[in-house]
């Protein structure tokens, strides 16, 4: 089946990035959210990212124009789903919310539409059970920032068909992504490792092992990670990181219990880059300054 129309549900950190690569791949892409502000910010983000891409020689003027031509924003999920070949949902990592999205999509999508979720941890079998087309549901897990990170993890649920996996692989490849296929386990490959490393860094910060800057520097320069785990937490969003850990704690056990300091930061509204402050402060023109 050829893919023409893609609906991305949720215009946050991930949804806006997914909509960007989808529109760049030539798909007619509708980005949906419940917040008009988020949609406006997402469209601005697409304009700015494409301009940066032109300056760096990664994108031609014409590609940027056609990307923006392919990208639409909407507050009306039902209408977007009515003509959608592929749904990629990127609403916050809360099971009730994901359930509502799957149920609403089922009520309004044509029979052929494939439902993909960008969840970092949740079981595709569980997500599929909220639809009436379990063979057409799978996880399509992108990475942040989406336009730069080359991987998509494809996770199949109990009843996901081979055709659905192939469809998602083709969509990902058209978005210039590499894919890996992963069996269903909480947190897949990447979120499971990343949550554990990020949580440990929070424990170290809480215990006073080193400053945030030195923890990040040690991991970058000593272990050759491109980014320290605390900087990465701010990029991912500390609320997203906490939700992942809560799910992994519930499903995989004690070693994933979220660090109390992480819980405290989220309670205080320190969510990372998106709120202007997390472990680091970004209020000064997005410049990273000391806590
Ligand atoms: N942040 C990351 O680095 C990252 C990486 C991979 C996967 N994920 C996963 O992607 C998903 C989204 O995460 P995020 O970090 O982009 O979240 P986010 O909080 O940045 O954005 C979520 C967006 O969903 C919108 N939203 C909330 N309720 C909605 C609803 N009922 N209908 C439509 N939109 C709604 C919000 O307005 C917001 O714009 C989560 O499942 C997360 O686990 C996140």
Explain the layout of strands and helices.
Elements: E1 5-9, H1 13-24, E2 28-32, H2 36-55, H3 61-70, E3 71-74, H4 77-81, E4 86-89, H5 95-108, E5 114-117, H6 124-129, E6 137-141, E7 151-156, H7 162-174, E8 178-182, H8 190-207, H9 212-223, H10 229-236, H11 238-252, H12 260-267
Parallel strand pairs: 1-2, 1-4, 2-3, 4-5, 5-6, 7-8
Antiparallel strand pairs: 6-7
Helix pairs in contact: 1-2, 1-3, 2-3, 8-10, 8-11
The protein binds nicotinamide-adenine-dinucleotide.
Count of helix runs: 12
End-to-end distance: 51 Å
Q: Tell me about the biggest sheet? A: 8 strands, mixed
- The CATH superfamily of the largest domain turns out to be NAD(P)-binding Rossmann-like Domain
Number of strands: 8
Ligands (ions, cofactors included): nicotinamide-adenine-dinucleotide
CATH class of the largest domain: Alpha Beta
Low-confidence stretches: none
* CATH architecture assignment of the largest domain: 3-Layer(aba) Sandwich
| Alpha-carbon Rg, integer | 19 Å
